[in-house]
Amino acid sequence: MDKLKIEGGHSLKGEIEISGAKNAALPILCACLLTQELLELENVPHLQDVETMLKILEHMGVGCFREKQKVSLNAAGLNNPYAAYQWVKTMRASILTLGPLLARYGEAKVSLPGGCAIGARPVDQHIKGLEAMGAEIHLEEGYIIARAKRLKGARIFTDMVTVTGTENLMMAAVLAEGETVIENAAREPEIVDLANLLIQMGAQINGAGTDIIRIEGVKTLHGARYAIMPDRIETGTYLCAAAITGGDVFLRRARNTILDIVLDKLLDAGCTIHLENAGIHLKAPPRLKAVSLRTAPYPAFPTDMQAQFMALNAVAEGVATIRETIFENRFMHAVELMRLGADIQIDGANATVHGVARLLGASVMATDLRASASLVIAALKAEGETTIERIYHLDRGYEQMEQKLSALGAQIKRVR
Ligand code: UD1
Q: Which of 36, 47, 133, 196 has its CA 20 to 30 A from that of 370?
């Protein structure tokens, strides 16, 4: 298994480009299932999760063609509405095939994702919503077996705010008969990106980006050409990497309007930030100030940036409290950060981080995607060499991370 070796203590300086958003690309790839016509996507990041989704779609009979950042998809030959456990267990977002398959093909067999390292993560809200639209669903040998002649519009109120749940129901509703109203919908920018694509394909959607989304079903959708939005979590991660090293970086294509709270916290930590049309410029002080935070659905602080901010707080001046409200087991990076010398106390969903003057390189283990990113950030600051094992997690969600960090002056190499 590949490892990363990072020699800490080098300030990040320079310019890199932000890639297309993983969490927008995954639902948008699944939207190809909704039409017989060609979907041409641009700015699709090269990531393990994207490759997994393309394999799942190919198995279903979708023609997939990739050239660099462009992907063309044609689901005219869709003939196998089946997402096997072997894929779904590696990527929970595979569940995003369920809604579009039911809407256009009328049947689907998709593995239940089961738990993952950061928590139980059930999909009951996806199922409840599709049942409200008239789907017949039962669970058999770990699979969701779903059938529907034509889905019917319904009023759906989700018990909690769920991102992929909202996306699945939105994709199901665009081809349903009549109006669907999704209340308590997630408001993440990736949902707006998916809605914009669906509208371009001929869907009638109002309110994406608010907590009430109204969808008037249409009979068919057509093909489209669409460029995926830049990745706000990748942006936030490189901003943190620059901040912890006292760096000075410009992130091309970074979009500031979807990062408000993350930028606010970096300002509170003492960074100077300039927002430009072409991207975001950050200059960091020699030592950051501790910043407390609480994760919650968008537009509040994203759970996907919690681990990276724990790394910043580990060496900041002062004490920070971090409260995780989305996932029940999302502090696994804390014990690894402690191996580098961080002073962190965990009490259920709360962490208290006392900033220390220095971290020292050590061997650590990546446990999930964003936890891995926090270890990379801490390693860039730690004195000496840090070895990060199990970095396949990083490859799921960060395009060319070593190359991008090297371009900013980090001493980082992959050992195969
Ligand atoms: C998405 C993101 C992930 C991010 C998360 C929260 C993608 C591909 N992934 O994951 O990066 O960390 O949002 O911002 O976009 N829940 C239920 N029942 C359900 C659905 C969700 O109980 O049917 C719970 C989950 O266990 C979790 C919370 O609701 O505690 C939010 O989860 P959700 O928004 O669904 O996360 P994902 O869409 O899986």
A: 196
